[in-house]
């Protein structure tokens, strides 16, 4: 591809993305799929009640005439898919599930609790938000019922139970999940250049250096492209970078201490990890292919950050599993597959790592009522039957950490790969750090300071010190 062809394509992509940027949802912190596009680039949803066997629903009892209300941040096509996945429960128990989605969920849920207009169940997208709800409204949030608790133990790892537990009590059960430890690339571009998918972090750095050397004569071509723009939430993709690298340089135990503030935010181990991130994100030789200089990362929407890959202006883009929807937004004909136009590989760990860390996110089902029908529906949402119904209803962009999920029902190769990482014992999962931190940090200073780190070249030390100073005293 010639330089003129690439630049012309860049102008066309700019026009396309300018018209679609407003469609992006905040997905980095809440773990949603991030797109209203439910067709999966041509895939279709299946019938969730085909060959329905109600024997698996007998534990829920006869709930004829009962209603369960659900409040969630999930909207539009994704909400329709959620509602479709409830049909087996409704048909086998006689209950009715009424779901309401709102993009103002996090602001409105406390208002509804205070006004007495509380839902039976809410889908809470961050463990940190769950902790604040339990602290602020201890009489409103109910402990998880016995059956759902049993299903969590049977179908999920202990880590997922821990993320829904506050002060020793289970208040939230896992719902959906996502994997953030991915690097997007073009298999065909790698093949044309003779590059191989790196197996270790050291290989990743060596590959980046090789790409720089191979394209020394074209300053537009870089190993990496990135964007951290996300409206009021600008900066969250940079927090994911730090979290993923900290897991690799310091390990899961230190990561947990950092998230829980058992060590300060500006601990030397965190400083080392941020320096490692800077070796990529603040390296003008490495980034920001086809988009500008390093500072352009701060003004590039995360939804558009990986687009230069299709023009071979950059070769790699670190972003989560839910980013797959953005490729079909760019071009419905793009194939997301291991031998397709774009795909993703696991963000590799250092060679010395015994267990490979995986960063991810998800939502939790939190009850505000303990009526039998509410407890039964929450148990259903922790069952393999629901995970499989949801997979059937969703062409792409949804996965679960439920061990009973039938992976063959997942139509997207990225979704299948994500489930492999979540269920493979050689990988150790950790939940998005900013989602577990107090809101003033996780959705406040962490986002804004990482933005300044890029946009204004604020020093590592000053960024980490500022975030540490913002941590609430209690």
From TrEMBL:
Tree of life domain: Bacteria
Signal peptide positions (record): 1-29
Keywords: Signal, Transport
Protein family (similarity comment): Belongs to the bacterial solute-binding protein 1 family.
PANTHER family: ARABINOSE-BINDING PROTEIN-RELATED (PTHR43649), OSMOPROTECTIVE COMPOUNDS-BINDING PROTEIN GGTB (PTHR43649:SF29)
Protein name: Alpha-glucoside ABC transporter substrate-binding protein
